[in-house]
Amino acid sequence: MIMPMQSPELASFTTNGTSDDEADPRSPRGIQSIEVGGQLLKALVRAGSALALKDLARAAGMSAAKAHPYLVSFGKLGLIEQDPVSGRYGLGPLALQLGLIGLQQVDPVRLALAELPALAQTLGCTVSVAVWGPMGPIIVHVEQGPTPVHVAMRHGTPASLRHTGTGKIFAAFAPPATVAAALSREGEADALQDAAFAAELEAIRRERLSRVRDELLPGISAMAVPVFDGFGRLALALAAIGPSALLDLGADSPQAQHLRAAGERLSQRLGALGRA
């Protein structure tokens, strides 16, 4: 009896391009062709704009001839669409709908809280999460690090826009009118007209890092980073607080890099594509 030849479609139903006999039994079973085609979607996300076929294929690490059938199928599903004039490929309506639904399902604070225990140990100091509340920035969670910090900071504590690392993140990235109103409530109505404060906020926007040394309490320093959502809005601030002798406020210090990396990971999980 002559056995039928296995079709290319069936051949692709393997795990990571291996045969069933070779596949790692501990690895989840997947479909190789979907994983390969998914590189085209990832390339479009990285690019952030529509691409010509040859450029998209190159970015995904494949030939144009190999990429085209995937794009046809993705187009039928609505994951990708081709501009009729330029011929460039961009994300389609289904991809946009999936993205919006994903953003609606994500809880920024919940994601941040999961990061805090490991972050506190990595940085060697106390870390916190803050969001914008009815009156201004408010700390919603504090994770103690290996070095205790004797500061009256707990859940629900407001953060000064002018004098805390957390507050300065919001002062730099929140809508100016909202910031101005909150500063007025703090008794700092003219703060945004202060040239030194304005320059500090501009540096924070450039570095994505705020730093405070001995400003509210002698011997205590802090730094904070922003976390953005998929619409480019500030979702929350991550801060590190510790003794000034133990917290290196250098913009490129290991502690600053770890804190910045945590903020960027959270931003990516919330749908942010990169710097605004």
Using the 3D structure, state the CATH architecture of the largest domain.
Answer: 2-Layer Sandwich
Helix run count: 10
Can you give the mean pLDDT? 83
Number of domains: 2
Number of strands: 7
Give the strand content.
15-25%
Instruction: Please write the CATH class name of the largest domain.
Output: Alpha Beta
Structural class, please? alpha+beta
Rounded Rg: 24 Å
Helix content range: 40-55%
Shape: elongated
- Per the CATH scheme, the topology name of the largest domain is Beta-Lactamase
Uncertain segments are: 1-23
CATH superfamily heading of the largest domain: GAF domain
Distance between the termini: 64 Å
Q: How is the biggest beta sheet arranged?
A: 5 strands, antiparallel
Q: How do the strands of the widest beta sheet line up side by side? A: 4-3-7-6-5
- The secondary-structure element order is HHHHEEHHEEHHHEEEH
Quaternary state reads single chain
